[in-house]
Each structure stands twice: as structure tokens, then as C-alpha cells.
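# step 3/5: fold
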Amino acid sequence: MRQVEKACFSYVDPKRVSAPQLIAYSQELAEELGLSQSYCESDEFVQVVSGNAKRTDMKPYAMCYGGHQFGNWAGQLGDGRAINLGEVRDQNQNLQTVQLKGAGPTPYSRSADGLAVLRSSIREFLCSEAMHHLGIPTTRALSLSLSGEGVERDMFYSGQPEIEPGAIVARVSPSFIRFGSFEIFSARSDIETLDTLLAYTIENNFPELYDQYLSDKKSAVLAFLREVSELTCEMIVHWMRVGFVHGVMNTDNMSILGLTIDYGPYGWLDNFDPTWTPNTTDSQHKRYRYENQASVAQWNLLQLANALYPLVESAPELETIVRNFRTSYEMRWHDMMSQKLGIETQQEHYESQHELFTQLEQMLVGCEFDMTLFYRFLTDEYHSYSKQEDAAAKERYLNELSYKDKLNAHELKEWNDWLQEYDRHISLTDLSSSLRLEIMNKNNPVFILRNFVAQEAVEQAYQGDYALVKQLLEAVSHPYSDHSSHARFDKKRPEWAMNKAGCSMLSCSS
């Protein structure tokens, strides 16, 4: 473990493990990488994705980067337990990097062991694939394996560490370069390496800018930041669409491709609470709460702009790009909300639509409605509700969406008033009923990887039963379909999960 100067990566081999065992793998992703089912079920595959076997064409490495953690500069961080095996071409001839997480120490591990435990590995494996099938930009997960060895972790930072099963996730992404990859060299005034890294990144991940980079570096750097800003904005809007909270939006966890990366103490909104964060470390200040994710993304982009400044030396132009993030986000958020409600964004009704959206979110909070179930109610059941003349029956519809014991008369009236205004906006749209429902069905998932469901899979896996992990892998592959096989997971959070560890909040311990 050391400070690595003037280098973007360090060669390092994964740690050999005693008894690797494949728990599950993504057959879809394997096929995209040109890997057959028979190969993925072979001993060679298990040995490679657990770090035990290195093919002759592999030269594994760990990456150097820094980052701001909870708003404070942390210096060198780097791949403390992630090791890249190398790049492969997928079926579309695009390069994909295959990386092992939890495969042992690297020069960037500081005082840690470079390993990962089963509970966090299950969560990363399942959520990576869940996000992909939800249509959210993300790194992917190829496989989940046991190492056969114990790993010591203090889950609650209580001074009572326990030995847990070790595990390894094989992750896949076009690039694992982060905002912090640029920050570290700028902070060290190593402009030569900063320039080298940016040239490599543009050539390989933004090739349309490469000729411009060679002829007009300043304009290319600005164009690069603009692209990263737009990709980041798209990702955040998708998070907001499905109620996903990352939990650790440090700059070292921000992908330059706008991909969701590093699934630690993430979570999903059950009852709509914009102030919720899944991270116990963030419980006091709630920097990374749901409603603050766009603001944090913009702050992180500012740190990236600061890192790129030595290559541009024009603060106003960089600041303009970062400032425009908010405008772009607000427009995209408005369009996203329109799609969730099945109405068109219309300039002449923009303000009244925005008021409709704002009132909706306020009422979701006040009535403690389940976010996912509410939007499915509008998609699937609202037609039946609106035709229902029995007031008691309509009341039952709404109470089923709430985590309260019962909505009061004032709350019920507010909802009926809002729904009338919603009907008015539907009438203003040119969308046919079938097209409106088609749009809503594509934006309002039936199935999300609810926190309590993931925790059930973890608890069963710790008993040696991986059936639920595999069942959930199948379920997350069809999040917009109403399948009876995962009907029990499409329910509100049960009472027992309200404050249970793993179901409500998680630590960074993994």
C-alpha cells in the first residue's frame, strides 16, 4: 500500500482463494460478451471470476484516483479492492472492462484487506442487473462467487466484528474511470498525467471529440465536460424516476460515462420521503438524501471542472457548463414526471403541470404513499377507480397505497381534488389512451429491488440457500411486467422491515 505518483494504474494480481463457488451469473450479459452457457458453468469460468486463474492474455491492474468524500477532499483513494482483468469486445464490438470486486489488496487498499463480504456482494450483483433492466445507465454484474474464506467485518461499527463469508462480484463496464481519476492528478499538479488520462479517455470513450482534442484542446475539454454533465443529468433523472437513492455520491463514485457505479449502502424509497438516505454514515446531515441527488451531482461536476481547469484556464466557460446542469435537470425532470403521469410536456401548460407535479409529491409525503405502488395505481387501476361511485370503495383504493393506518377526510378530499386536476391535464393531451398507458408502463416499474426483499435474499444466502438470489435475478430482469412468480415482492414494505438493519439503512461496511 503506497501513494502512487504519476501513474493512472498499477499492475496487481488478484488474491488466490481456497474454495471458489459460483452462486449465480447473468446469462444475458454473458451472451453479450460472447460467453456460452457451458463455459459459464465450467470450472475455468469459476476460477477466472474468483481471481484464481489468469488467462495468458490478461494483465490485471488497479486504478489510481482520488475523491471528495462527503464534501471533503480525501486525497488518494483508488481501487482498494477492485482489480481489472482486462478488456473484451462484446457482440457489438464495443470494448467492455471486466473487473473483480473483493479480489484482494492493491496498492490503494490503505489499511484494508481488499476483500468483500457476501451480503454487500449480493446487493451489488442484483442491483446492477436491476438498474440495467429498469433502463438506467449502470455498470453490469456478470457473476457472484463465494471465495470459500471468511472475512472480518464490523457491520455496525460497534466494536464487535464478526467473520462473514467472503464473496467476489465480476463487474462489467465500458469504463471504470471516475471524476476522481482526474481530481487526483490536478490536486498533485501533475498536469502531464492529467493530460495523458484525458487524451486516453476521449480517444476511447468520446471518440467523436478526439480530432478536436488534437487540434483545439480547450474546446475539446469543454465539450468533454458538457458531455459528462449531460450523461450525469440523464442518470440522476432516472434515479429520481424509480425512487433510487445511491447513498454515497462521493466524486470517486461518479462515472465519467454517467453510469451508476459502486453499489454500497443504496436503497429504494418505499413511502415517498425526499429526505431519506439509506446510509447510516449520512444519517445526521443527509447530504446524499433522495431530494439532494441532483444538487450533489452538480457539486461533483464542479469538482471535475476544477480538476480540468489547468487544461483550459478559463473558469467562466467551465462554470457556465456546470451552471447549465440545473437547467437541463429541471427540464428533464419535468419531462420524466410527464411520462410517469402519461401526459405531454406542453409549454402553454408548463407552469400548471409543474404545480401538479409539486402538489403530487407533497401529498405523497403527507399521506405516506408507497411511491412505486402509487404510480402503478395510476397506470393499472385508476380507470377502475375513477368509474367507481362507491366512496368507501374509493377510500379503500387510496388507503392500500398508504403506510398510515387510515387517511383522514381532509387527505381524501385533497386526493380527489388532485385527481380531478390530473384528469384535466389528461384531457389537454393529444395522446390516445393506449399510447398514454404505453408510456406510463415504460416509466413506472411493477418491480423494484425493495430493501427488505434484498435483505431476505441475504439472510437466506447466509444459511447456504441461494434460491432467492437466483429468483430475484430473474425478477429484476422483467421490472415492467406483472409476473405471478414475483408477486409477493410487489407489495408494500412489511411492518417488521420498518427499522430492521438492511431493510431501512445500511452502513458502508462491506
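# step 4/5: annotate
The chain has a mean pLDDT of 95.
# step 5/5: archive (pending)
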